[in-house]
Predict the structure.
Amino acid sequence: MWQEFKKLEYETAWIFKRIEYPARGRGRTYDRPLCTSVRSTADLLASVQILVNPRYIQYNAEVGLIIDLHQQGNGFISPEKLKKQLASEYKYRMDNYVGHLVLMWKCWREPFATKILTNGTICTIKYGSVRDELLLAGGRFLSAKIFPDATAGEAAGLFEYLVFLAIFTHDLGKLQVKWQEVMRGWQEIAWREFGGRNPKSELLAHTDFDPGNISQKKLSLIGKSSTNDRIMLSKVRF
């Protein structure tokens, strides 16, 4: 498409531009992306992101995105996506230690549904269980690396035992008395001030925390003295 466009020798028109981000540390850039001209095939191939002139863009529900130099674009505008949270800003919900282990085991054994964006539309899809995806592969790995004489069934069974052991032990550190005191301190605040669950006397694995709640986030960053139970959230989120 680029070669064909160059042959037309338009003087003012453009079809592709590179989307570039300023180098870190440069003043007054605020990390806003810049669009620069594509002057060669090498520029195009080296581009991680490109902007396509909407004049040449059409969208067909059956084919998808079409770039055509000889037809006027049909005004296609990409649909808005759901606002994404940063990976470090997941929303947490309080669960007790035993309940957390049960949910982890369910994550391993049971299928689950999630939402994805397909052709601009949010769709719900259902995946098979992680167990169905990994059990045989895990068994083959154990047979190849550690237990060459084990049958396929024995190796797969051993792999599942190892998964169970990993789930059962991965949060043992949270049973420390001091850790529980800190987590309970925050959960008391989340319960009284932000509508979270009452921690009662349960052993906690996670506490309530919503990064979209500005008051919670400020409190988690500022922290207060133990006399009023305000605990730095950085100690309790995980």
Q: What stands out?
A: The CA atoms of residues 224 and 230 lie 5 Å apart. Helices lie at 2-8, 41-45, 97-109, 130-145, 152-169, 177-194, 214-222.
